[in-house]
Amino acid sequence: MGFTYETATARVFYRYVLNAQGDVIALLDENYNIVVKYTYDTWGKVLNVTDASGTLITDTTHIGHRNPIRYRGYYYDIETRLYYLQSRYYDPYLGRFISADTYISTGQGILGHNMFAYCGNNPENPYDFNPKGLYREEYAGSYNGKTIKWKDPTTQIPIFEWNEDLRHGSHYHILNNGQHTGDHCKPNTPVPEPWNSKYFGG
Known about the structure:
By secondary structure, this protein is mainly beta. It has helices spanning 63-66, 195-200, and strands spanning 2-6, 11-18, 24-28, 34-40, 46-50, 75-77, 82-84, 89-91, 96-97, 135-142, 145-151, 158-163, 171-174.
């Protein structure tokens, strides 16, 4: 994932480097050299914009300051120092949205009535003790195409496997304890139970 930045004299493609939370933590040039690094506080305030050696970049025309995608992958408005989150703007210096949520409060919890709060007023400590969903691992595969496995986040056991299968057409398998059962599912086949409820919320 990246973008092309064009000036009067050059046209350069930059790639984003993201951490697990989706923050843009660096930009790479076309040769995969680090051009800029970003550090943020918990609320998304930009603490430092540095080059590969850690030297602060003060030139406001540098690509490090021109790049609009920053914390959590949000669009950063350089002039106002606000993040645009599709429906309203967020101020990382205040840790608040600058306009109220359009959804009326459900009244659940103390912060349920605060229509300006960001991440429940606590973006650092919440933890998902019962994670749902699967994580993806892609393999180059063989002469017959690549393979993608979706694994349980807690057990690391593969649940589904997708095969590109250049000879017979792509399909996926539901695995039994990580092993093939011989069942083939065509693309767009609904996920059966109990996996649909367990990993996709039913």
